[in-house]
């Protein structure tokens, strides 16, 4: 079989698929936030859109700047332009991206918190939700009980999409992913004793349900806003 190298267009779309909504922990490509992609003379112009014009400006900036960073890593591209459409801060964000001004340089005194701190908060939430999905999978499909979960390690988790997502989320916040590492951990990544697991699981489930509910809500808003093009 002859391997066919991915086209520049395929590599651009693959790069955009690595960019996630920080609050929903889903790729912007799957959420419908990529409005258009145009490549001419090895220069790409990407337009992004969001469910409402008043989505949080720091979230909007984070996704747009992450898209710029992801596209700049694509071999063969000689130019990258990312623009956010139909947002009340579109002009400010697009000007900041074009000037490589960074978050604080874009929003000035309106930049209320560190973007790195914000990103860390949502990565920790994404890890918590991924951990709960793996724990629930074990409880549903094996003889493992809640009382056993403090003894369960990553090596006990079946291979598959849930485990792959958990390993990525752990890496994103600097946690190890060795087979002997405990599955259920606290917010700092420390192992729990048996009595602490039920409360941790209830919190993790609430985080997961909140993220999934928000994602569903955002898809509905996007479809309402843009109709059949969403």
In short, what is this structure?
By secondary structure, this protein is mostly helical.
Essential attributes:
230 residues; mainly alpha; three-stranded mixed β-sheet; two-stranded antiparallel sheet; globular; Metal-sulfur cluster biosynthetic enzyme; MIP18-like; FSCA_dom_sf
Account of the 3D structure:
The protein is mainly alpha-helical and about 230 residues long. Helix content is about 50%, strand content about 10%. It is built from eight helices and five strands, in the order H-E-E-H-E-E-H-E-H-H-H-H-H. The protein has helices spanning about 10-15, 30, 55-70, 90-100, 100-105, 115-140, 160-170, 195-225; strands spanning about 20, 25, 35-40, 45-50, 80-85. The strands form two sheets. It has a three-stranded mixed β-sheet with strand order 3-4-5. Strands 1-2 form a two-stranded antiparallel ribbon. A hairpin with a 2-residue loop joins strand 3 (about 35-40) and strand 4 (about 45-50). Helix 6 (about 115-140) packs across helix 8. The longest helix has 30 residues, at about 195-225. The two termini are about 40 Å apart. The model has no long low-confidence stretch (mean pLDDT about 95).
């Amino acid at each position: 079989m002859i391997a066919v190298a991915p086209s520049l267009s395929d590599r651009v779309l693959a790069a955009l698929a690595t960019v996630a909504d920080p609050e929903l922990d889903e790729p912007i490509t799957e959420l419908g936030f990529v409005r258009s992609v145009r490549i001419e003379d090895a220069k790409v112009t990407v337009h992004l859109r969001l469910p409402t014009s008043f989505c949080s400006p720091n979230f909007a900036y984070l996704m747009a700047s992450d898209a710029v960073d992801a596209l700049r890593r694509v071999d063969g591209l000689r130019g990258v332009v990312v623009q956010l459409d139909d947002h009340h801060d579109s002009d400010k964000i697009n000007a900041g991206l074009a000037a490589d001004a960074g978050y604080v340089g874009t929003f000035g005194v309106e930049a209320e918190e560190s973007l790195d701190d914000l990103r860390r908060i949502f990565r920790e939430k994404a890890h918590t939700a991924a951990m709960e999905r793996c724990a629930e999978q074990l409880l549903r499909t094996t003889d493992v009980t809640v009382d056993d979960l403090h003894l369960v390690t990553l090596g006990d988790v079946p291979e598959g999409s849930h485990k792959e997502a958990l390993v990525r989320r752990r890496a994103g916040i600097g946690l190890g992913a060795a087979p002997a590492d405990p599955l259920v951990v606290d917010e700092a990544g420390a192992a729990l004793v048996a009595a602490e697991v039920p409360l941790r699981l209830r919190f993790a489930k609430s985080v997961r349900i909140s993220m999934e509910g928000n994602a569903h809500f955002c898809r509905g808003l996007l479809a309402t806003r843009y109709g059949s093009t969403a």
